[in-house]
Amino acid sequence: MITTASLAGGAEAIWQAVVPDLPGFTVEVLEEIDSTNTELMRRARAAALDPVLLVAERQTAGRGRLGRGWHSQAGQSLTFSLGLSLAPRSWSGLSLVVGLSLAEQLHADVRLKWPNDLWLMGRKLGGILVETAGHADEREGPRSVVIGVGINVARPAEAALANAPAGPMGAMPPAGLAEVEMGVTAAELLPRLVPPLVRDVQSFAAEGFAPFASRFAARDALKDRELRLSDGTTGTACGVAEDGALLVRVNGQLRRVDSAEVSVRPC
Ligand SMILES: O=C(O)CCCC[C@@H]1SC[C@@H]2NC(=O)N[C@@H]21
Which residue puts its alpha carbon closest to atom 7 of ligand 1? Predict the structure, then answer.
């Protein structure tokens, strides 16, 4: 089922023409919402999510990781959330698979900054916010997951500077896909990105991160870079383990990092 009723006539026709063929999914395109992730998390808390793709032309309270905001302008970026129920053996590596899937469809030069940023020419092109709903003790069985994706299509305006994390790389202005693909629109990206994303997420649920590890390595933006972790530790990035953990050499010892904010140290 496809819903585009909240859109003005012209916009409705544009989105109707590009809505991806997603068997089993409900597809909704809205003109405006607070945040596509917030909306699907509201629904997930009420009942297990049936497969849904929620696209918004404009978010009034877009959210990024770690409590940050996500700023985007209508027509300048693609913002959507995918909601579904999954029962992977381990959730570790899901956001890496999402980033990899998107990068592979976006452009040969898109790189991945662990755990969930898309980079183009050393600048942030997009971000991913993965959230799950369900009780903490529900280790077994399906949980609802909401996979939020924001991609700068046009070169973003000043407001989007806030999307880039603080730190040396945070000072860099964000990138837009149009810099390497002139004339690309948010609407035409949707059918290009979403069906492969659904396939990759389903394959992750069945097989975990390991089958994706070498593809991730080919786009790893951090490999061999000097890093600073959020706890202040510094070291050298040595790639990603088969379960998706970041490997960092610290004082000659290889350390696994499962979750942290990572910034690249200035050269
Ligand atoms: O880089 C990040 O911190 C993640 C950004 C994720 C932004 C997307 S836009 C669609 C979805 N809805 C939100 O409120 N956030 C995600």
Answer: 150
